[in-house]
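Hello again,

I reread your note about wanting to compare the complex against the isolated chains. To keep things tidy I'm splitting this into two emails, and this first one only covers the full assembly. Below are the input lines as submitted, including protein chains and any nucleic acid or small-molecule components. They are followed by the predicted structure of everything together. The single-chain runs will come separately.
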Amino acid sequence: MKLYMTERSGNAYKPRLLLAMLNVPYDKAMLDFPNKEHKKEPFLKLNPRGQVPVLEDGGRVYWGSTAALVYIARKHGGEKWLPTEPAAMAEVMQWLELAQNEIHYGLQWARGVMNKIKTGNLEEYQGYGRTGLSVLEGRLKNNQWLALGRPTIADIACYPYVAVSHEGGQPLDSYPSVAAWVKRIEALPGWVKRV
Amino acid sequence: MKLYMTERSGNAYKPRLLLAMLNVPYDKAMLDFPNKEHKKEPFLKLNPRGQVPVLEDGGRVYWGSTAALVYIARKHGGEKWLPTEPAAMAEVMQWLELAQNEIHYGLQWARGVMNKIKTGNLEEYQGYGRTGLSVLEGRLKNNQWLALGRPTIADIACYPYVAVSHEGGQPLDSYPSVAAWVKRIEALPGWVKRV
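Full-complex prediction:
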């Protein structure tokens, strides 16, 4: 299994975390982010969206953090990290949707603007980010984990950009349950640092 | 099964399409979009994100089009619309990620600005939309369907906002394979009109 990534990418950090927690060995293919290797051939042949991560296994290629998480969870995690029963799978999936929406174009983009790796409307992005954090806080006030009462890929998908949301101007001080959940994830066996 | 929706919502149209194609009966709970019923209590209890669709079944609630599609496909579609084998599921999932990204904050938001239901940077959104359409065109040039050589929830998730992308200033003239795929979806048994 080979993971195309950059060291700092939060989206590539998602499969890296799951692979580490499941203790699955893999090769890292590091892209040259400052030189925009992810926006050029031959990488665009692997992922025409021009983004990391891309996962390669058994001669097949999957782009995007959602596909990577789903593949790893199904192949190596049994029913634990992504169950196949309809209600349980849907419960996990709704949080992957939050990760791809308010957390992505909210928290991630706000951070991108503040870190000067993206242009755009900071206030608009921070507004979406606040919605995302409020939804998480509402859930985590009475739950240890986002879905199914245990760690799943729902937590892995939402965690990376929430953990650095202060870099987008939105510290977790007003979201104490979210802050506690971040610490719970970082205490899980196999957890690794982003950089 | 009950689907909370508005008549015009493209995201609610996704589970509506799948339910129609699978011939599954369900109740429609229509929200008053002009009066922003989806942004107020009691709806926010069902979905704190303040969006449709929400699916209710067996006393449980799932928000978002991804969770709804996954739930319906797993409960009523066997292995056909969303298989559980790792490689096949990941292949489907990468297109659901495109639907939640370039198609959503590209095509859907550009259309939202032009239809005056959203503010924001039209050119930025159209740029993302072009990436999304190019990725689809690249895939569909040599494939009838987005994943697995057959209709899956990958097609259902991407179709609604692609089919109306001209309303966001991006007609499909330059994307002939995408235009042909839209027609193929509309010829599938059980296909229903959005409005």
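For quick reference: Chain B has a mean pLDDT of 97.

B.
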